[in-house]
Each structure stands twice: as structure tokens, then as C-alpha cells.
Amino acid sequence: MKFNKLFSAMILSGALVACGESTTKTETVEQSVEQTKQTSASSLPADVQAAKDLLLAKWTGPYQGVPAFDKVELKGLVPALEEAMAMQLAEIDAIANNSAPATFENTIVEMERSGQALDRIFTYWGIWSANVSSPEFREIQKEMSPKLSAFFSKITQNEKLFDRISTVYKGDEFKTLRKDQQRVTWLTYNSFAQNGATLNAEDKKRYADINQRLAQLHTQFSNNVLADEENYVLFLDDSQLAGLPESVIKAAAGAAQTRGEKGKYAITNTRSSMDPFLTYSDDRKLRQKVWETYYNRGDNGDEFDNNEIIKEILKLRHERVGLLGYKNYASWRLEDRMAKTPENAMKLMEQVWPAAIARVDEEVADMLALGKALHGIEKIEPWDYRYYAEKVRKQKYDLDSDEVKQYLQLDKLREAMFYVAGRLFNFSFKPVAEGSVPVFHEDVKVWEVTDKTSGEHIGLWYLDPFSRTGKRSGAWATTYRSFTTFDGKTNVLSSNNSNFVKGADGEPTLISWDDAETYFHEFGHALHFLASNVAYPTLNGGVRDYTEFQSQLLERWLTTDEVIDNYLVHYKTGEPIPDALVAKIKEAATFNEGFKTTEYLASALIDMKLHTTDPTNIDPDAFERDTLKAMNMPDSIVMRHRTPHFGHVFSGEGYSAAYYGYMWAEVLTSDAAEAFAEAPGGFYDKEVAGKLVEHLFSVRNAVDPAEAYRAFRGRDAKVDALMRDRGFPVPKQ
Fold first, then answer.
1. How distant is the alpha carbon of residue 225 from its chain centre?
2. Nearest-angstrom CA–CA distance, 724 and 679
3. Domain layout of the chain by residue ranges
């Protein structure tokens, strides 16, 4: 359901969807809202009142209105949230108390229209949470998260409202609705049922209390990780740079300068800074220091330690789904996912795990032989893996990652993504005039997206590419407004957000091959938003083990000849990447696949086991350590996301018991990629691209994912293609 999805996104990651403006509210709803506004009027200071009003206001300006990112102020956030919640409750009460019999139009559609002021505020909340966080916002977040949880519980536990939803879902009218209308009705009903609407009064209260406490804990977990990322920065001098390539040194110098340490070099506590340092630094002790600092986020036994928070989160989640009759949290979580059950998800992961750790053994043997010969080491420690893997790569394939990096300019890669979007989706991207669209930071740039043939405006694409203090780590995509048609077409406001280390002044930003794949991946999410052709806001949601599929698939276009030949050029000479280097990249495509697959799968398996285990006496650190040992986890690798900083799982519930979804989606990705590889036109085949847009992108969640994939491929996906992609043996059927 729309509001539940929005709340989950807000608490999780700031990935918010603001829905289109309504022009056809019923008179009853309009009257209730107007009364609420008058009732909530207060004697706020003039500046706070103005800030509140701006946050609540409909967006103005070009492109059907855009967020006033340059004008909104935190001081208006709390009163704006309180008024917007009151407005939506008035809307909901009007729907629930309508004396007319429940119908799709007066119940489901009116619910889809509700909460637009709150949606707009959530867009700003998401930016303050993820892109420009501050101590002031984090205090507001702590204060308001449980209040927002209580607010949403009032809606999901509104018995009159649920009775009307049930009437529509179970009544004769349902059979006459279009398929997408049936799906939005089912999604709404199921969201209520899965969130306590069927419970008795006592259990409903406990359910709501648990949600409020979880909202506090998720926020605290996230802020603790962010604190460790901000507080731990390693400053180096000229004597500590051995092995680091010029591009890494320049980026570290720039990072130090922005932190007031000109003349030094900063290695920040983020993956984009840690990863290249561990890959190239010759100083083993420094590598260990950087590794330990990064992988101990949230696990330092101080005020930002997350272990006690994890214990409480797991216990509360288990208790909450127990109220609904589920044996464990994962069973509840996966009920409406493609996997359906934890057992199905585990079966897939356990098919891949043995091949992954066997490959790690081979990789470690190669690295140890080289490490002994070069430096006399006796064991590959986790802080050695990237370093010696890079040396083996050079030895085996004569492939230098830093040499490849010279051809991976951020701006050129962006143009490559635009090219792919033009070929597959018929989209054109044009920079908007500077200052015509407000942004929240000077690094953010905006492009208008149109149809290449008709010139029809589709939406805007915002890009916030660089790391900075107050910005959460990682890469993500979000929408500020999604496409709908039920009240007239709304255009899309989409965004991509990354944490690349900005190049030195006057220098392009160079990124690794892995980062280039991530850049394409997140752009795949943006294309999913921009290609939407659904009627109702709820249908812009997704099924977690399916939504990563479209973005993972887009990574495949990075290695197409059209992209390589035209956009991978040397940042100094402008010369195209040599054919010989491309051949080395492709030859080494499955190199280090054991490491990549194992570190991911370890996180996914721990996530699933945490949520299928009785958490009564759980010790997160011990559980992680003992479970990995039982799985024969190689001791030269750690989980990609260790439990104390596993934000996907404990900053909210979007990926909890669902991190396996990347692997599930990768099965679809590999299978779909083979459809393109087999087509006459290859990865730019018009017929297959047309099916891609029609069946896999534009429908969003208006069609069951399994049905949508069969419409594209003509059959269900098979795991065989995934195993071939990773260079693993294909399991016997």
C-alpha cells in the first residue's frame, strides 16, 4: 500500500516516492482536510510558520513543479510533519466513515490519493537523512520516527477502513476490475493483513508498540554507523603512500583538504576510499588498520556499538510476526516475494555456496604463492586479499586495475549510460539550465529526460555523485515523484546517488571497473522509474527479490562494444581503450569471482539465518562467527556487510531476510542477458529491447514478477546461466 511503502522507505534509506497531485478529491475528504488545517493552526514563530508552510506546499516551477531543495529549512520539519499527518488521518477517516457502500473508486482510489502533503515532506526527509545529514536532523529523526510509526499504525489498525478494503477485495466488483486494479486492491489488502489489521485489540496495541520501538532502533542503528564513518578518518603523509597510484593519491589529497588538512592524504571510512587503498597500498600494517576500522563499524564497544540494538531488533521482529501466527520473521517477509519461503531462498544460495568457497581456495593458493615469493608472508589475511589479488591479476592476465581506471571517467560513463538509455528506451537526456531546478548541494546536477522520437517530456534525472561529510555511504537510487495516470499523467523526478571520491581540481573523477558496474546498476533503477507506465502510486513499488533484477541487468551494457569503443577513453590523451586491454578485461571477467560471490553470499546467508533462528539469547557477534565457521567460511574473507553495520537489514526492514534477493535477481539477470546475447542484434536488438521495456520495466509492480518474466522470456529463469557467468560448474539437474 502506498503509505506503508513510503513509511518503510523513509525509515530505511530515504528512498522516497512522492505521488502526483490530486485534482479530484471527494468533497467529504476536502472538507475534512480543511477542518484539520484550521484546527492545527497555531501561534508558531513567523519564521517557523513560513518554513512549515513551504514544506507542506505543492511544488511549483517547471516540469509540473519541483522540490524547493534550495529553500526548505529544518526548523519547519516537525510542525509540518505533525500537520501533514493530521491531514492524512482526516482523509483516511473520511474514507473509512463514508456512508456509501465500499467500492474501488471511493475506497482504494481515494486511499491512493491520500497523503500527498506528507509524501512531499518525505522527499525532503529523505534528502536530510541520506544526502545532507546533520546532528540537528538526527535529533528530529529520533523524535519523529516513533511518532510516524504510531501514525501509520493508526491507519493499518483502522477497523472501518479495513472492512471497506476487505469488501472491495472479496466482493463481486473485484472480478470486474482491470488486472492492474485488482493488483492494487490485493496489494492494499495484503499490506493491511500483514501489518496487524486482523489482530484483536490487545495484540494490535502490542503490534503498534513494537513498530514504534523498532522505528527508534532502526534510526539509532543507522546513525551509529554514520557516526563511525564520520569519526574515523586516517590522515597520511608523503612517507605512507607507497604503492598508491596517482589517481588514488590525488583523491586522498582532495579529501584531506576538504577536511582542513591540506598537505595530507585522507583515507575515509567508506568503501569507495577503503577499497582502492587495500588494493594498492604496500604498507601491510596500514592496510590492516584501514581494514579493521572499516569492518568494525558499529562494533567498537563504545557509545556507537550496535550489538545490543541488533539483539532487541531481532527479538521484537520475532515477537511481532508471532502475533500474526508466523513461525519466524523470514516466513512473514518472504510470503509475497518471488522466493515465497526461506527454504526456497536458502536452496538457491546453497546451490552456489560450495562452488564459491572452492573458488576462494584456488584464489588464495595463487595469492599465497605470490605473497611468499614477494614478501615472505605465510598467510593471506583479509587485509591482504585485495592487494595480492591485484598482483595475481597482473601476473595471470597482465591486467592492471589502475591502468583500466585511466579509461573510466565518471562524466564519460554517464554519457555512455545516456547512450544505452537512448538505444533501449528511446530516452534523450539534456542538462537543464543552471539554476532553473533547485538542488540541495552544489555537486548535484539535473537533466531533462524526453522521448527521442516525439519529444514528449518524461521527467528529470538528478545526480549526486560524490562523497562528503553527512552523506550516507554506498550508492542508491530514489524518486521524488513517480509516474501515475489515474489523475492525469505525472512526470517522474528520479535520482542517482553515489559516494565517489572527487578528482582533484581540474582533474576528472576516475573510478574502478567495479564502481563503473555499480554506476550502471543504479542507473538501471532510475530507468525503471522513468519507464514506468502504471496508473496508481502503489504499483510503482516492487518485490524486493525482483527489483534488483532490472538494475543488475543494465550492468551488462558496460561491456558492449558500443560503450567500450566510444566512451572508454584515456583521461589524458583522449585515446580509446586499446583492444588488447579490452581483451584482457573480458578474459579476466570471472577473476576473483570466488571473493565477490563469497563475501556477498555470507551476508545473505547470515541475514536469512538470523531471521529463522529463535533470537531469545542471541549474541550477534558470536552468532556471526559461529555460523560462518559452520559454513566453512574461508578465514581470508569477511562478510561484505558485517552484522554490526549491516544497514540493509538493521537500518530498516527493506532488505531484512531479503538480502538474498540480489542473488535471486541475478538468476533472472543472467538468464535475460542470454536472451540478448542470442538475439540477431545482440544487446541492442530492437525486438528484445522492446520486450524488455514492455514486460520488465514499464509495468513496475502492476504485474506479478514471475508472470512478467515469463512474458519476456517465454519461460521461467534457470540457474544455469548464473553459474556460467561466474565460471562455476553448472549443477546437475
1. 17
2. 18
3. 2-173, 232-295
Tell me which DSSP letter residue 234 carries: E
Chain position carrying cell 551476508: 603
172, amino acid identity? D
Query: Residue 604 and residue 663: Cα distance in Å, rounded?
Result: 9
Alpha carbon 9 to its chain centroid, in Å, reads: 10
| Residue 394 one-letter amino acid | K
The Cα–Cα gap between 454 and 478 comes to 26
List own/partner pairs for 346-350 with CB under 8 A and 24 or more apart: 346/605, 346/608, 346/660, 348/660, 348/663, 348/664, 348/667, 348/719, 349/601, 349/604, 349/605, 349/608, 349/660, 349/663
What is the tens place of the pLDDT at every residue in 76-85? 999 999 999 9
Q: Please check whether residue 411 is in contact with residue 256, taking contact to mean a CB–CB distance below 8 angstroms.
A: no
pLDDT at 19 over 50: no
> In the prediction, which pLDDT does 190 show?
94
Backbone angles phi, psi at 730, to 5 degrees: -75, 125
* 41 pLDDT tier (thresholds 50, 70, 90): low
Residue at grid coordinates 605512507: 240
Torsion of CA 261, 264, 267, 272, to 10 degrees: 90
d(CA 607, CA 605): 5
C-alpha 669/C-alpha 663 separation (Å) is 9
Q: What is the DSSP string of 613-659?
A: S--TT--HHHHHHHHHHHTT--TT---SS-GGG-HHHHSSSSSTTTT
CA 556 to chain centre: 19
Pull the grid cell for residue 278.
Answer: 587495500
Q: What confidence tier does 730 reach under pLDDT thresholds 50, 70, 90?
A: confident
As a whole number of Å, the end-to-end CA separation of the chain is 39
* Average confidence (pLDDT) over 641-654: 95
- Asked whether 298 and 305 are in contact (CB, 8 A), the reply is yes
**pLDDT category, 42, cuts 50, 70, 90?**
low
Over residues 595-612, the pLDDT tens digits come to 999 999 999 999 999 999
Torsion (CA) 57, 477, 320, 159 in degrees, nearest 10 = 40
Helix-, strand-, coil-residue percentages of the chain, each rounded to 5: 60, 5, 35
C-beta atoms surrounding 613 within 10 Å: 16
Number of Cβ within 10 Å of residue 282's Cβ equals 13
Side chain identity, residue 244:
L
With contact defined as beta carbons under 8 Å apart, do 462 and 476 qualify?
no
pTM of the model: 0.85
The half-sphere exposure of 187 on its side-chain side, counting CA atoms within 13 A, is: 28
Give the right CATH number for 2-173 from 1.10.150.120, 3.90.770.10, 3.40.1620.10, 1.10.1370.40.
1.10.1370.40
CB distance 363 to 595 below 8 Å: yes
Name, in order, each residue with C-beta under 8 angstroms of 576's C-beta and a sequence gap of 6 or more.
565, 566, 568, 569, 570
Residues 411-445: pLDDT tens digits? 999 999 999 999 999 999 999 999 999 999 999 99
Longest Cα pair distance anywhere in the chain, in angstroms? 83
Least confident of 358-367, 648-657, 723-732: 723-732
Residues with catalytic roles: 522
| Cβ atoms 44, 80 nearer than 8 A | no
Q: What's the CA gap between 615 and 617, in Å, rounded?
A: 6
